[in-house]
Task: structure prediction
Amino acid sequence: MEAEFDNNGVDREPSTDEENESSTQTYDLVIVGGGSAAFSAAIKTSELGGRAVIINDGLPIGGTCVNVGCIPSKVMIRAADAHHRTMNHGFDGIESESRISDFGAITLQTQALVEGLRKSKYTDVVAEDANISVVDERATIIDSHTVQAGRSIFTTNNILIATGTRTFVPPISGIGSVPYLTNETLYSLPELPDRLIVLGGGYVALENAQMLARLGSKVILLQRSARVLKTESEEITAALGAFLEEDGVEIKTGVDVEEVREVDGHIEIDVLISDERSTLEGSHVLLATGRTGNTENIGLEALGIETDERGFLTVDETLRTSVPNIFGAGDVIGEHQFVYTAAYEGSLAAENGPHSMQKERDYTALPWVIFTDPQLAGVGLDEQQAEAAGIDYEVTKLDLKHVPRALAARDTRGFIKLLRDTATDRLIGARILAPEGSELLMEVSLAIKYGITVDEIKSTFHPYLTLSEGIKLAAISFGKDIEKLSCCAA
Result:
């Protein structure tokens, strides 16, 4: 079965020539895929005076982020947040109620924004650039300098593979015979799932489990490992998991899913937990079980281009595959699957390819966010990573109950944790669990990137009653007891 690309083509009518006869065209860069990596590469090629063609098939142009990922998920998370906070604001003397009167209206509004951004940020952008062409066909790489799409042949000195990913379907008995949901179908549902079973324990699973629980679904989350977010510390995963459970998400860990089946219009899942077998029932099941690269049937095997067991493309630090003039960028290389890293990699590939440069990718101070509530945001190293790197580090943890803005907002859930190198006083990492914790992240990211010390952060003005003041307070707490300081104290 052919893979469905996450990064895909623009709707446009083929010309008469395209319908009736084959053609050969030459470009500086031929791009297979149409998401953020592809667009960034095409735009960079044009800026540098070259011509690029984007060849896509599958999802609408724009890739995962705008169509079935970042944009629709965050819109619906905000809708759930608005509904939840109306009834859970924490202020005395205010009574308010909220109800979901039309779940379908939420998803329709979400899709309207998706369509608007897809047009304004993707199709309109390339339509105005004479150096960028878009072809709505499935691409096949014929050789290291030739790509075929429909009846057209494209020759080039450089090829970029930016075909994205799709949901990994685990080898569970019966999974292929049930109508499961993925991120490609969840955000356009006309009705709210009554009883949702989520398979997975990563950020996609957690964000959507909490969002749907807040909107009224009964949600059970099944995670195979001993805890959710297994790459983060137990302290963080336990705290975040507890907040999700307060919102009605039932989290089960150490779960072996044995069989899935559809019975009389509902889903039954046989599970093994702590040597005990049981059957769970739900109206819907959501697969949030990781990603797999869209690399099948596009010609890689014949060229000897390597992929791993999940289909992710193998590239070097300059984003070259084993064929030096064929590059990979974005989610398909399977490393940092963020829209902003994909855009960075696409631009880098466009410089390294047509311009024969050898720039290496640099992910120093790479920030990331999980959009639960409270949000989990991170950058740099955590304690385990710092220890493994042999760094003599110090860690401080500031509970949000010490941040005046959080106290005034009646929401002190979470904490700010900073790590510093004791030899240099420079920050080396942060983990922030806080409402709108993502908005605190960039100060720390810039401090890590540019070597700003903890002492310099402490001496920098932070407006009183802002959440960002929490970063300064956390920095102060490396050497002082915050509970013994007055407001605005340094």
Observations:
- The mean pLDDT is 94.
- The CA atoms of residues 169 and 176 lie 9 Å apart.
